[in-house]
């Protein structure tokens, strides 16, 4: 009977708090449908790794001895040792993306770059709050609005806060429908949000679609070599989509591979959500900085669009600048929904999609540049 009570008596208040965090993530996934493929396994994993005297993480159990936990093994192999899971996920993401709206409107590349402002704001904020350079840079990359990039950067820079960073990145990605409208309204007027934009897609040939992922990989590999793994796998996935001769592989990458890796990645990240390393003041600070990063990403993109409008005869809706973050396709959908609400029948989705896929590339390049810059200082 005493043995049966060992688990209950071993629970700490920090673990109880993490059970609450796990249940909250599951509730957001199921009830609110905020990125359920990510938040549900993360939430359930947070409960698993905080159950005492279990075999999901490495522990010494009475009467059994040393137990090698499956979640810790997945973390060591798939994230800690090789960053394999977040990198492989990019094949699926690349296969899902249609770069046509971006290629037909090259100016949208600028919005992807402008919407990375939150990264550098967050790095400065984290530094001022007392985090060292590697941790500050890892926290700042939450502003990339890209979970795999956040995990990869924090792992390569050996940040102590991988779990908190991953949770912040994925949580705020899921909360884009709440965060972005608030930030957009802060810096726009109703008249600006009602601006209509005519979509005139240019002719994007098949040759251009095939050449694009190859050229981008080569250019990024020379400019920001530390990001070539993410960009290369992203562009490889896109090449599968666009080549026209590997439909089965493209379909597998978009669905089977992406879903499987997302499932494994979500539950594996939970290893970093153990109460002994997660429940501390630094975690709350990271969550706050991450929120600011997302807000300033959005504001940076919107203000850049407003700046361009000073020189344009035909004005653009500045909300498309907000879609320059990497949260694809959620951000583009949010912008379109806001445009419809402000002016029924206003369609700016394809412009927003162009900015959104640009943000996907820009966030990965920004991550590689930050790794290179920080490494040069160490």
TrEMBL record:
According to its UniProt entry, this protein's organism is: Hungatella hathewayi WAL-18680
Its GO biological process terms?
Answer: sodium ion transport
TM segment ranges: 12-30, 37-57, 77-97, 109-131, 161-187, 208-236, 256-272, 284-304, 316-335, 347-374
Query: Which GO terms of the molecular function aspect are on file?
Result: lyase activity
Classification from the root reads: Bacteria, Bacillati, Bacillota, Clostridia, Lachnospirales
Name of the molecule in the record: Glutaconyl-CoA decarboxylase subunit beta
Q: Where in the cell is it found?
A: Cell membrane
List the GO cellular component terms.
plasma membrane
Topology of this chain in the membrane: Multi-pass membrane protein
Quote the NCBIfam families the UniProt record gives.
Answer: Na_pump_decarbB
Q: Which UniProt keywords apply?
A: Cell membrane, Ion transport, Membrane, Sodium, Sodium transport, Translocase, Transmembrane, Transmembrane helix, Transport
Q: Which PANTHER family has this protein been placed in?
A: OXALOACETATE DECARBOXYLASE BETA CHAIN 2 (PTHR35806:SF1)
